[in-house]
Structure formats: C-alpha cells, structure tokens
Design goal:
The complex is a heterodimer of chains A (about 110) and B (about 110). By secondary structure, chain A is mainly beta. Chain A is built from no helices and 11 strands.
Chain lengths: ~110, ~110
C-alpha cells in the first residue's frame, strides 16, 4: 500500500535537546511538506520541498531544520532554539505540478517537550 | 493572510445541513478542503479552481466565488461520520510550490 509514514507516533524530550521526526513516503511524490498544528488551530507550514536537495522555509521555520537527500524521505529536526516545540507535527506529500495538488498526510507525531 | 473560516463550530443532528465558509482578503487561485478527525491526519475532500466552479463529493459539495474571494462547503443530510474539523487551504497563484495557507478550522459535531 502506498502512503506516508511518520514515526514515532508519540515523542517525549527534555528541553534543550534536539529531536528528529521521521517522514517517509512511497507515493513517488516530488513535493513534501511539514506542518505544525496546535490545539484549536489550523495547519502552519514549517518547511516544504519540491525536489531532492532543495527546500524552502514556510511561515514558521525558526527553530526547525530539514533535509531532502532522498525523494522518499523528508526528516524534520526540532532544535533547542524552537521556543515552544510541543505540538502535533504532520508531514504531507503531493505530486508536483502547476498549482497545489491534493496533499496526502501522514498520521502525525505528537511531540511533548518538558 | 490566513483565510477566515466561519462558523468556528457547528452542532447538528443527523440529517441536518450545514454550510462552512472560507474567506480571504486576497485574490485566490484555488481553495482546498480537508477534514480531520480528532487525533488523525487531515483527509482531502476537494479542490476548487478559480472560475466559480462547484464540486461534489457524495453529499458534500463546495463552491468558489473568486470575485468575493470566498468558498463555501455544503454538507447535506449530515451523517455521524461527518463529524470532525474542516479546514480550507488557499493558494493565491498558480505557482508550482504547492504551498497552501490554511484557515483555523471549523469543528462540526453531528449527533444522533
């Protein structure tokens, strides 16, 4: 079955530690995205990538970093510089084209930093 | 530049209808609609491109009025399975970034 996997589902970290969230897709999609969702709020774009070895900052990139070394993988690192990292993180992918296409979302990772 | 959704929350009985609106202060190229169940990933419902088209998905349809920069999602004869949070995502131009700006969401609860 094609889809997007994110691991782990729940993640707990101490303040001051960097943590990397995994996102893998086997849909052969070129574009991948990372969103942050806080309670009662919409999805805010952290980073996105349209092609391997290239990515752009979204609206709330500060304190986060990404890499896109393989088409299937787009890991997100939450650094200690992120002031309020506790949130639900969603990864998505889509076919690259003119205009935004349907985005397929992974199940998400709920990160808690104490 | 985040689109504004209204209402913020709706409670319905099974079989009732609902309308969710998504408004932008900027001109739009497309509007996307997603539904998210609690604790789960958002699921795609439909895309509307400028041109005022209307689309349908089972008993869920939507329209896009580009002059008003507004889209409306229509849920008719609601079912329990329609419960969740509905998000609109907007795109301002036909670029190839795929970047969407999402509204804050509308929570829909359908009761028996």
């Amino acid at each position: 079955d094609g889809g997007i996997t994110q691991s782990p589902k729940y993640l707990f970290r101490k303040e001051g530690q960097n943590v990397t969230l995994s996102c893998e897709q086997n849909l052969n999609h070129d574009a991948m995205y990372w969103y942050r969702q806080d309670p009662g709020q919409g999805l805010r774009l952290i980073y996105y990538s349209q092609i391997v070895n290239d990515f752009q900052k979204g609206d709330i990139a500060e304190g986060y970093s990404v890499s896109r070394e393989k088409k299937e993988s787009f890991p997100l690192t939450v650094t200690s510089a992120q002031k309020n990292p506790t949130a639900f993180y969603l990864c998505a992918s889509s076919i690259k084209g003119i205009g935004a296409g349907e985005q397929y979302f992974g199940p998400g990772t709920r990160l808690t930093v104490t | 530049q985040q689109p504004v959704q209204s209402p913020q929350a709706v409670i319905l009985r099974e079989g009732e209808d609902a309308v969710i609106n998504c408004s932008s202060s900027k001109a739009l190229y497309s509007v996307h609609w997603y539904r998210q169940k609690h604790g789960e990933a958002p699921v795609f419902l439909m895309i509307l491109l400028k041109g005022g088209e209307q689309k349908g998905h089972e008993k869920i349809s939507a329209s896009f009025n580009e002059k008003k920069q507004q889209s409306s999602l229509y849920l008719t004869a609601s079912q329990l399975s329609y419960s969740g949070t509905y998000f609109c995502g907007t795109e301002r131009s036909a670029s190839n970034t795929g970047k969407l700006i999402f509204g804050q969401g509308t929570t829909l609860q359908v009761k028996p």
